[in-house]
């Protein structure tokens, strides 16, 4: 699905650029509790080779977290986490962020 956050198991997907896994990627029941999207922006003329990862997951204590990771492809990214009271709030924020990034030239890649 292009332009939406997909529910699915990302354990078989390549780890985040830089070879490290982001929060929650090794949970045994990932398909039940995680939504993830990976976007890239490549523009050789402007020397832009960037990635953006969005993960929505439930924390151990109940609230939902929107985890964002971004940076240059092949390098460790910057990670930020925002907590939400409900899954719907987190998904809405993730979809808004996804739309913003696709408007700026990022392309969603399939997991």
Report on this model:
This protein is α+β, with helices and mostly antiparallel strands and 111 residues long. The chain has a single domain, classed as WGR domain (q64v53_bacfr protein fold). Helices cover 19% and strands 38% of the residues. Strands 1, 2, 3, 4, 5 and 6 form a 6-stranded antiparallel sheet that branches. It is elongated, with a radius of gyration of 14 Å. Residues 6-33 have low confidence and may be disordered.
Low-confidence stretches: 6-33
The best one-word shape is elongated
Strand content: 35-45%
Proper CATH architecture: Single Sheet
Number of domain modules: 1
What percentage of residues falls in helices of 4 or more residues? 10-25%
Rg measurement, Å = 14 Å
Task: Find the structural class using helix and strand composition.
Answer: alpha+beta
Work out the oligomeric state of the chains in this entry: single chain
InterPro entries: WGR_dom_sf, WGR_domain, YehF/YfeS-like_WGR
Pfam families: WGR
Organism: Nitrosococcus watsoni (strain C-113)
Protein name: WGR domain protein
């Amino acid at each position: 699905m292009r332009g939406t956050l997909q529910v699915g198991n990302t354990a078989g997907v390549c780890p985040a650029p830089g070879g490290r896994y982001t929060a929650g990627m090794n949970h045994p029941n990932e398909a039940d509790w995680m939504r993830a999207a990976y976007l890239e922006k490549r523009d050789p003329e402007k020397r832009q080779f960037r990635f953006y990862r969005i993960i929505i997951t439930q924390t151990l204590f109940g609230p939902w977290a929107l985890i964002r990771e971004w940076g240059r492809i092949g390098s460790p990214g910057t990670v930020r986490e925002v907590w939400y009271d409900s899954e719907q709030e987190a998904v809405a924020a993730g979809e808004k962020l996804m739309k913003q990034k696709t408007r700026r030239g990022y392309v969603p890649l399939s997991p």
